[in-house]
Amino acid sequence: MRVLQGGYSGLLVALVYAPGRGLFILKGGPSGEIRLEHENRAAFLGSSDEWLVDNQLDGIYGPVDVEIRDQSETWSAMAYRYIGGRTYRELADYSEFGGFLQSFTRTPTAEGTPPERTVRACLYKVASLLVRNADLQNEEEGRALGDYLPDVDWERDINASLTTAAALWSDIEDLRDFRAWYTEAAAAVRVAPVADRRLIHGDAHLANILVNSVRAEVDLIDFGKGRQAHVFEDLARFEIDLILHTTPRHVHSGALVQDELLETVNLVGDDDFALRDSPDEPRHRRCLRMWRQELCAVLRGTSLPGAAMMYRWFLLSESLKRIRWVTNNGPVAAGVDMLSLLRMITALRRMLDGHRYAPETVISTTAEALTLLRCTAAYVPMHGHERLTNEKRNRAKEAALHASAARGASVRITAETGYSYLATRGVFNSRILHLLAAGASLQMVICNPYFLEAYGISASYDPDGRRFGSVVPDRLELHTDLARKFEASLRGYEILREEYKSLVEVRLARFGLGATVLLTEQASFFEPYFHASRNRRERVLFDTFELQFEPGGLHMKRLLDETFQFHWNNADAVTDATSLEERCRRARTAVFDAWQNMGERQDTGERQDTGERQDTGGR
């Protein structure tokens, strides 16, 4: 016996081998759930599985009392015929339908990719299983659309998520008052265009459909959610899954390419979509077109007036249900990121309002832009909460450094003085020690304490209100606090270098650094510099802001990687500090003298100009 993952049902599932019977699947759970699934399977398939009957495995076994989490429950068990390869060679032939479709759409030239005729044959069999050769009828009893639509549990995350999204993404106007629109618009369809009521599978997503890609065989599993409902409910769940599994994704982030997703969803609004053919279209849209063509061939009545419109209502309700998956399980488990899902929902709403959806090409809201940049946190120190915010972002940085140490991954940093990381009393120094002790490396670029940028920073430390904000040519020393930080950082680097040799290297930037940048395998951090009063920062610890990015955000990752590499390539080794300090002193003095001379000439010119204006006024 091998216990298998039981999905999200909470039931116990195992692969069993019994002498004389071979392999089969055994599922155990609460007696009521097992009985319902057993009855649904028999009713849905229309006949008993001969293999189960021959092996006396077609019944329900139990009930028995079991102890689960210190509670007594009554459980039963049922058996499924095992569907899958029985040899190592055959294992590659079987997969869930999602993997089967992805192999067709994403690797068209790879060995083992199923040909189009096989995909079409399997889509036909899926449609045949879900529809079972029934046909749609004109609604004769005058039942409303709402009588057929599945219930949308608005109170379980859906309404809250839509309301929050409407506030964050204010330019997506269709998200506003979505629940009210849905309720009123659905109720306005007083007579549903087409009628149907049958036992549906109830959970026809791709993981519950197994396929043998060599024999083009398709099997349904997991009938526990079967109930009497409209066939559109099964079809919509399958189609939404098909779209999400086949739409291209960004290589690094794994997020759906929104333009491709919306172009595909827009085809759903074309009533003639399945009737036409377009051999040159991308494979993911070709896959959707083949599905619609096979569905129309199997399900009679799809051309009845209003049938396509009614089906789009089911697609929308299914999309709304996915919000809970994203909220509770995250985009990886849900198979779709929240922004893409919301775009798809608003596209379907516009179709039902009689319009096509044209996504904006310009991002106009901060929240949407940060989402696209894969920004996961923004640390903004509001008045009175600066220290708490500082502690929170420091914990995030510590976690990222700890993760890098655990993986032995390198860390790269740009910083003004590097005090927090290099100085023995720096807040992250212990994490740097842990990182290097684990065998990971550190590359760091800090400002050159001997040249112009350092004196610009120093001016921000000047407490003299009269001089604040200007570099004073006759003051060629760094502010005491800044000089102390540079000294502690360089001394800390010497200590690290003695212990960890080439694992740690610090360079002095030739050009001004615009931000503290921390690049780790787990996250990136970006804190821009401002020439504001450093006295205030010394009091509150944190007075700017900092953004945290996922490593999968390709756009921001490229910018930060290239910026670090620029400063690393245009920097001087700290080991050359003695000669560098002398060269920088001569150059610095020359620049300050030039600034002073320019200031004197400017003052003289202003005095002369003022005198001329006065003379002119006297005349």
Describe it:
Helices cover 48% and strands 16% of the residues. With 619 residues, the chain is an alpha+beta fold. Strand 10 and strand 11 form a beta hairpin. It is elongated, with a radius of gyration of 33 Å.
User: Low-confidence segments, ≥5 residues, pLDDT <50?
Assistant: none
Number of strands: 20
End-to-end Cα distance: 111 Å
What level of helicity do the residues show? 40-55%
Q: So how many helices?
A: 21
CA-based shape? elongated
Which helices and strands, and how do they pair?
Layout: E1 2-4, E2 12-18, E3 22-30, H1 31-45, H2 50-54, E4 60-68, E5 71-81, H3 88-91, E6 94-96, H4 97-106, H5 116-131, E7 137-138, H6 154-168, H7 178-187, E8 194-195, E9 198-200, E10 209-212, E11 217-220, E12 227-229, H8 231-246, H9 258-268, H10 283-298, H11 307-334, H12 338-352, H13 366-372, E13 375-379, H14 386-407, E14 411-415, H15 419-422, H16 429-437, E15 442-446, H17 452-461, H18 480-500, E16 504-509, E17 515-519, E18 524-528, H19 534-540, E19 546-549, H20 554-569, E20 571-573, H21 577-618
Parallel strand pairs: 14-15, 15-16
Antiparallel strand pairs: 1-2, 2-3, 3-5, 4-5, 6-10, 7-8, 9-12, 10-11, 13-19, 14-17, 16-20, 17-18, 18-19
